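Something for you to look into today, if you have time. Just paste the record in under my message, thanks.
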Amino acid sequence: MTTPTGQRSLGQLVSDLSEQTSRLVRAEIQLAKTEIAERAKLLGAGAGMLVAAGVLGLYLLTAVLATLVIVLDLWLPLWLASLIVTLLLLVAVAALALVGITALKKGSPPAPQAAIASVQADVEALKEARS
């Protein structure tokens, strides 16, 4: 409905503003969805490449260890070279396991202890204030 001078009423303007705002919000949400989907694809591709690099890294480790055995075999019997490399690996695995266990013990339980203590102190303060 327009007034005789061709101007729109305040109700019409508010209605148009509401409709345009709604369309703008929907467009922004769609843009955000599209952008997130594209980033997720990139993250997936990057994660896949990192997994492939990890697998190849394990193959590389095997090759390095075999090379180490062959090099030690130049000066020692093969069985002794293999035993030395195996013992070195055993020491490395044991050290990593001990460090990992220590880190897990420090992180357990995964509850936010400081936040819990703060909330309990707040509850106690409120109880004292009520008394």
